Amino acid sequence: MLNQIASEVKATMSIYEAQEDALYGVVAEFAHPGELLHAAGAVREAGYRHFDTHSPFPIHGMDKAMGLGNSIIGFITLGGGIIGLSLATLMQWWMSEVSYPINISGKPFFAVEPSIPIMFELTVLIASLSTVIGMFALNGLPRPYNPLFYSTNFLRVTDDAFFLHIAASDKQFDLGATQKLLKDLGGKNIETIRDSGEED
Amino acid sequence: MSETVKRNNPLFWLIDPMRSTASQADPAYRYSWSQMAWMLPLAIGIAGLVVSAVGWATNSQQFYFSYLIGWAFCLALTVGAYFFVIIQHLTKARWSVVIRRIPETLIWSFPLLAVLGIPVLLGMHDLYHWTHHDLFDPTSENYDAVLAGKESYLNTPFFLARVAFYFIFWTFISFKLYTLSVRQDNDPDPAIPKLQRKYSAIGLGVGAIVVSFAAFDILMSLDPHWFSTIFGVYFFAGSFMSIMAVMILVSITLQKNGMLKNEIKLDHYQDLGKFLFAFTVFWAYIAFSQYMLIWYGNLPEETVWFRHRMEHGWEGYSAVLLLGHFILPFMLLIGRWGKRWLPYLGFMAIWMLTMQWFDMFWLIKPVMEAEHASLSLYDISSWFGLFGVFAAAFMYRFSRHALVPQRDPRLHKSLSFTNS
């Protein structure tokens, strides 16, 4: 049960696990971004969920075609902001009222007015840090090991090639049918990736 | 100037310097609503001004202050529109082209506002304490050494010359930006975008200083002992915020009445909503920057301004301003959903416009009655009166031309704009 939840969470970061027979998935190359965009929509409509697209540059409308929806990153930012605000308030109060009270031209030890810049800055700081860290986490980064790199053809993804990858962990996955689907959509150089977790 | 685009006759110049080009507008961009769009605000405006005239007859000081509040509100909207148009040209903005005609039409309110500003000049003796001559006379019992030191700046002839300069400058830049854009609708002169950028550059650089000094002269000098160098930015922050609200409301109204149905999309609204949110926060940032330094410095001549707004009932008004202009809108506008749900966004736009008026009220009214907080009927009637006339002139002018800059080279980018 827990393993299943963990692998589903990892799948949202597009980290997929190889099946028992070391089958990791199928990757197909597409001629241009338009084809990849179309293929992503078609693969989603065919019912696949564990798939990802790879391209040298961002493609407009790809998140919509893949059905990714809105990221939850905004809520992570909000949470970070609230934590930052509370921490700063607590810190300002503790330092000026409890730990080291100094009388400065008769002003109250703890006052909101001079604390607001600190509250503002810490809100922004923790909110932005949690945004960056949250963005990395949601994307499953950094990711030094990716079984797709077993394909030499796939290395062109940072250069001039567009790939779609369907993972074997998808409920719909069937080696023959999936390969046929990708072929029908115009995929070329369709490769089956195996990941035994060992070096070649 | 091409054959099809002509200047208007001089009598009409105040309302619209260009002859109507509505018949040459692309059918999709043609105004198709009834004349009620400007007649109704005009009727409300005249009714409001009639009520205010009663105030002038019975309590002229109250009238002048109320009138200045309403007038400053309209001026802030026009200043906001002025900077919005300028920034769009200078950044060669693509997203905003379909809604740019709204602020572009609004900036031609400067000459009308100059005429509507005459009662403010008539009431200068009531409004501006520094116009009293005995303040500068060392033998008088009203002699004020601080104000006597400011006499070379705060004197009536120089004040009038400065305000005249502000309006001439604003009118000049607005004339160029407005007429160039209307001309472009039927005159595909490729030099126009470059000219628009040129006048925008002048308008931005000089305009920043002009708006700052206009805020000093018209609003800050109401309390002549007090000074705050950030005051002009404060005025700008509120005005730039309120033009976003106006663009949202005009767009919603147009679409409700069947115009620009496919041209203005949720993506445009979302970006306007982001700007509305951003400048609500920016206003608070500037307002707080002003407040905190004065709180810290604790100098009597500076703190008195806030002291006036924190006792005798004004503390309640200040709390409403803080809550209604920043804290609540911050929470209500932060989400993405609210910016893409038009009834909600429209409600927030009305809210923020009301708060912009309230901000002007909060700046001006305590000068009149620091000892006794009050909201007069004439404050409301002058607001409705001036804003009604202002909105009527805007809607009338807007109905006379294409609803979008139809030959703008970046229009197609704006039509296909997405932000998701």
Query: How many β-strand stretches of chain B?
Result: 0
> Secondary-structure element sequence of chain A?
HEHEHHHEHE
Give the amount of beta strand of chain B, in percent: under 5%
Class by helix and strand content of chain A? alpha+beta
> H/E order of the elements of chain B?
HHHHHHHHHHHHHHHHH
Radius of gyration of chain B: 22 Å
* Mass-distribution shape of chain B: globular
Nearest-angstrom radius of gyration of chain A?
24 Å
Salient structural properties:
heterodimer; A: 200 residues; alpha+beta; 6 helices; elongated; B: mainly alpha; 0% strand; globular
Write the layout of secondary structure elements.
The complex is a heterodimer of chains A (200) and B (420).
Chain A: H1 2-12, E1 23-30, H2 33-45, E2 51-54, H3 62-66, H4 73-99, H5 112-138, E3 162-167, H6 175-184, E4 188-194
Chain B: H1 36-58, H2 60-90, H3 97-106, H4 110-116, H5 118-122, H6 124-127, H7 145-149, H8 156-186, H9 192-218, H10 231-256, H11 266-297, H12 300-308, H13 314-333, H14 336-339, H15 342-368, H16 377-399, H17 411-415
Please outline what is shown here:
Chain A is an alpha+beta fold and 200 residues long. Helices cover 46% and strands 12% of the residues of chain A.
Could you characterize the architecture of this molecule?
- The complex is a heterodimer of chains A (200) and B (420).
- Chain A has 200 residues and is α+β, with helices and mostly antiparallel strands.
- Chain A is built from six helices and four strands, in the order H-E-H-E-H-H-H-E-H-E.
- Chain A has helices spanning 2-12, 33-45, 62-66, 73-99, 112-138, 175-184, and strands spanning 23-30, 51-54, 162-167, 188-194.
- A four-stranded antiparallel beta sheet of chain A has the order 2-3-1-4, covered by helices on one side.
- In chain A, helix 4 (73-99) packs antiparallel against helix 5 (112-138).
- The longest helix of chain A is centred in the middle third of the chain and has 27 residues, at 73-99.
- The mean pLDDT of chain A is 87.
- Helices cover 69% and strands 0% of the residues of chain B.
- Chain B contains 17 helices and no strands.
- Chain B has helices at residues 36-58, 60-90, 97-106, 110-116, 118-122, 124-127, 145-149, 156-186, 192-218, 231-256, 266-297, 300-308, 314-333, 336-339, 342-368, 377-399, 411-415.
- The model of chain B has no long low-confidence stretch (mean pLDDT 88).
